[in-house]
Amino acid sequence: MNSFNLKTFLTTNVEIDEQTIKEHIEKLKKIRIKKGNFLLRQGDICKHSFFVEEGLLKYYSIDEKGKQHILQFAPEGWFVVDRESMFFNQPSQYFIETLEDSVVTMMDEDVFAELSLQNKDFALFNNRLLHNHIRHLQNRINLLLSATAEERYLEFVKIYPDLLLRVPQTLVASYLGITPESLSRVRKDLATRRFQK
Amino acid sequence: MNIKKVASLIAPQAPHFVGDGFRVHNFIPHGNLIGMHRMDPFIMLDYNSAYEFAPSAVPKGVGVHPHRGFETVTIAYKGKVAHHDSSGGGGVINEGDVQWMTAASGVLHKEYHEEGFSKTGGLFQMVQLWVNLPAKDKMSAPKYQAITKEAIPQYTLENEAGSIAVIAGAYKSVKGAASTFTPIHIYNAKLHKGAAVDIDLPESYHTALLVIEGSIVVNGEQAVSTDHFALFENGGTTFTITASEDALVLILSGEPIAEPIVAHGPFVMNTQQEIMQAFNDFNQGKFGYLED
After folding, report:
1. Is B285 in Cβ contact with A187 (below 8 Å)?
2. Neighboring chain B residues of A188 at a CB cutoff of 8 Å
3. Looking at beta carbons, which residues of chain A come within 8 Å of B288?
4. Of the options 1.20.210.10, 3.40.50.10320, 2.60.120.430, 2.60.120.10, the CATH number for the domain spanning B6-254
5. CB 3.0 to 4.6 Å from B140: which of B104, B144, B200, B210, for a disulfide?
6. With an 8 Å Cβ cutoff, are B289 and A192 in contact?
7. Predicted TM-score of the model (pTM)
């Protein structure tokens, strides 16, 4: 919703000195990239973790029938990375594409490793981010396996409060694993109930 | 006479599309050039300068979107717009009409070129204004004022100089058609070539004009041509418009609400917390439902 700066994001969460910021964070490559461009394509090796300072990315796969499946949206303040590709050196199964004009900071594997070695606080924070990410994925798996469309939708708007106004409903439906018609029905049902109360 | 001077003359910036049906130049907030406070209570002005739309079987426009915390005012100069909203309301804004929608606590609406107009295509020219609401009225009930061209009172100038259509507020003895939450004057001044008219407005009111057709000179010194916007200083009470050729001029003037403004996309509130609430309410269906 706002512009997020990686330096601010780190310094507000971690005790990190100016020197370390200068050596590691300020040297990172920051790119401006227009809507509809790719940061990663299927078959590439993912070399970076992307931190979104402005704009919006989608992380998705395309199945044999050409259907898109969105694993994650990354608005301001989010990281997105294909871990299998970056940390296990596998060709990626995924795409990372900009949904809006974006400003993205690119972090390679070494940055995380060096910062973690140098700064215990960063190591702890990074660990916490990782656990949080795994928690998020666990919830997502559980919702996809067991939850109703409405429950999935309500969880989605909790995580991404402004995305309904930023992306087409077809993409939201793809993230939720439901049809656009089901998403419409869920929203209509919710509205009807709110108004009858 | 205490003259209200032009503070800056603003040329239309490169147009952008709102949806696929409105090709607009933004004048307020115009990035940081004007911002949302300088013309408070007018916090947004998009101007679709006269533009020829090709015929289209599928009406162009803007799909379902919410608003909360302010009013949208659509002034149709050329072309026709059909609109629908989540309270079941809807209608057509014809040439010369004004639609004054008080979004207040929240509506979903959509706006498209009217079907007939879309099929034939043609010249399209509109202004959309956002008028802020004071904190105490932001969560009042939504409502519409569909003001037809015929219902807008006119002040006829002497010597066939032209007329002032009073959309809101008052010009001399003529009272405007729209009811407003805070003191606002909105006029369409139609002037024949060579005609001059004095406009008296309170010193403290934020005031600007936009030349819709023709060209004018303000206070005998500042030329303003078609599609240009003149922002007035906050001082002085009177300015004079002289028409260099037949002209139509939109004049806006309002008492500042002077409250904090926190805006995010289609929501304009007083605090960040209220913006988050607006997103939550929208996500949870509290704005109602409208089919795309």
Report:
1. yes
2. 289
3. 191, 194-195
4. 2.60.120.10
5. B104
6. yes
7. 0.90
